[in-house]
Structure formats: C-alpha cells, structure tokens
Amino acid sequence: MRIFKDEEKLSPEYVPQELPHRENELNMLKTYFSSIILGSPSISTRVIITGSVGTGKSVLAKLFCQKAVSEAVRKGVELKPLYVNCRISKTTFSLLRKLIEQLKARLPERGLSNEELFHKFLDYLEYKGFYSIIVLDEVEVLLREEGSEPFYLFSRVGEERLKTPRISTIFIFRNPE
User: Fold this and answer.
1) With contact defined as beta carbons under 8 Å apart, do 29 and 47 qualify?
2) Fewest CB atoms within 10 A around its CB: which of 21, 37, 62, 90?
3) Structurally, how many domains does the chain consist of?
C-alpha cells in the first residue's frame, strides 16, 4: 500500500501546470517580460518577487518561465530560462558558473574576473541567438555573502553593451521573519 498517489509532487523541482490564485501574478510577469518573449527587448527587465517561506515564489517564477518558453517557441524565439538557487551558489563566481553550465556552454571558468566571465556569458548568448530569463532564488543569501557586486553586474547589463539586451532577471527574496 502506498501512502502517496504521486510522490513526484512533493519534490522541490515539481512545477504544477496551474497555480490556483496566481493568475494575476503570472499575467503581470508576462506583461513585464513580453518584449524578451517576443525576441525584441529594448531594455533588460528586472523584477523582484518577495514573500514568506512557502508562499510559492519559486514555483511562480518556474511556471512563468515554462509558459514564457512555450510562447517564445510559437514566436520563433530561442528563450532559455536559467534558474540558480543562491543558497547553493553563494558567490558571484559559482552563480555565473551555474548559468554557463545550464547553457552547456564551453567557456573558460578560470583566470577570468567575475565581470569578464559575465561578459563571456553574454557574448555566448549573443553568438547563439539566445535570450534568457534568469531566476535568482534566495537572493538574500548572495547579498549577505557577496554584497552588491552580483546585483551591479545584472542591473548594469545594458549600460555598457550597445547590442540588444539578451537577459532579463527575476530576483526572489524571502521576507525577513
């Protein structure tokens, strides 16, 4: 006799097809990120999602990314959602490494500063014609460990590059208890 009908639904990686009572939030995200989904961003969008533990912040972002990819595919856009839990990747370097690893990109990981590695990552997206929505979860851990450097990298991405912005970011913060 089994206790659970479908144990997969207890996994932290599980993303349901629908999130009851989150339609408004999903629609807001779709509006904010519509230009990258269509492959015509003029700016890099940044959104902050906050809430208490267990309120569905991460699953909201993951479900949105799944829906965004489906929409982008219909529009012929190569959209790559990238998710990093900053409780696991606590440094800017490990965060960038995780992003590169998810793209299966072969970029040098040693001997480069964080900023150089970030620009190589952006160059790779451009070379491949990819756009990306990056979800950084539990960002408060990264902020505590690294200070403002990673936020500076992600927030200033469009200022020094004159090319089409390739990334937009969702930052997920846990409300202090």
Assistant:
1) yes
2) 21
3) 1
Scanning the structure block, which residue is given the tokens 């990298």? 153
Asked if residue 70 belongs to a domain, the reply is yes
Cα–Cα distance, 2 to 92 (Å, whole number) = 43
Higher pLDDT, 37 or 9: 37
Give the type of residue at 23: E
> The pTM is what?
0.90
pLDDT tens across 76-108, in order? 999 999 999 999 999 999 999 999 999 998 877
CA-CA distance, 96 to 99, in Å (whole number)? 5
CATH number, residue 68: 3.40.50.300
Cα maximum dimension of the chain = 61
CA distances to 10, 90, 92, 122, 177 from 151, rounded to whole Å, are 32, 13, 9, 15, 23
Question: Residue 21 in contact with residue 144, Cβ under 8 Å?
Answer: no
Distance of CA 141 to the CA centre of its chain: 16
Residue 32: inside a domain: no
DSSP secondary structure letters along 102-136: HHT-----SS--HHHHHHHHHHHHHHHT-EEEEEE
Residue 2 included in any domain: no
Kindly state whether residue 67 falls inside one of the protein's structural domains.
yes
The separation between the first and the last C-alpha atoms of the chain, rounded to the nearest angstrom, is 39
